[in-house]
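[audit] Reproducing an earlier prediction to check determinism. Same input, same settings, fresh worker. If the tokens differ from the archived copy the diff job will pick it up downstream; this log only records the rerun itself.
[audit] input (353 residues):
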Amino acid sequence: MRSVLYAMSIALICSLLGTPVAIGFFKKRGYGQEVRSDGLQTHLVKRGTPTMGGTVIVLSVLVGYFLTKAIIVKTPTASALLVLLLMTGMGAVGFVDDFIKINRSRSLGLRAKAKLVGQCTVTVAFAVLALRFRNSLGLTPASDHVSFLHDISWLGLGPILFVGWCYLMTAGWSNAVNVTDGQDGLAAGASVLAFGAYTVIGIWQYGQPCGLTAHGGCYQVRDPLDLAVVGAALVGACFGFLWWNATPAKIFMGDTGSLALGGAFAGLAICSRTELLALIIGGLFVTELMSVVIQVASYKMRNGKRVFKIAPIHHHFEMLGWSEVNVTIRFWIIAGLFAAGGLAVFYGGFAAK
């Protein structure tokens, strides 16, 4: 269990100390945020704030994880490495997107097709490898079954559909975190709570292994403790970054951070066999994404009529007169309730066995 504390502490220190270095570096090179001219006018003052801070989060997680493994003299596990691969790969796609925005001074980066190719490449690599690397019990990092608290036996997808399912999850969670990242500290704070929940889940699954035969009240997860270590590193990295990203933000995570965090969340859900439970744990992200989907659908199907004043939904409340700080803090509370609710459902499933 010490490894969980090591990873969180190391990632926290790296992020807390590394972020101001990144702020100075990006400011010197003029890597500032572009803001949509058709968005909230109060956000125009944020134009020029350093972005691509997600690079610090990703690097802090990697340093936190691998340095922890070196300290405890343990070999990295396949499950953890695959989650880190998905996080880093999606972060790389986001980095290119951010760089194009900065280089061309526009609020839109990669073209849709180019982003799709990048996301598909990373996700296919993850999905193919996740069904390999069997351990002594025959468990692979992921299963080709859809899962809730465990694999759902009658929802087997097969290898090919599993790749599509992985893409759906990765793209969905990456976009969900991305649309949430529209206010100072909102996505970073919500991510701390969501990844904290997955750290607890990993530790619990580690203490309740199934062994060779599955039975009620246990979990057939290949490397649960190492998934908890990755979750803890993500908590520490996001916490450290939040110190500088809180209102008024000195730096933004950009697509580099939001896509990486979304990829990490999807990877943890897939490898911990809690894919549908993730909808509860990350409920705030789901709400933010659905607000955009509902707004677009309403606009197209109801002759330009909108459900919200503006989407995503956090901007809707700003338009109603809430201050940005109030929206952020209240949405953190909602994120905490979703994470706690997810843990309650997870424990409830265990206790019912």
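[audit] rerun output stored. Observation attached for the diff report: The chain has one domain: 2-351.
[audit] end
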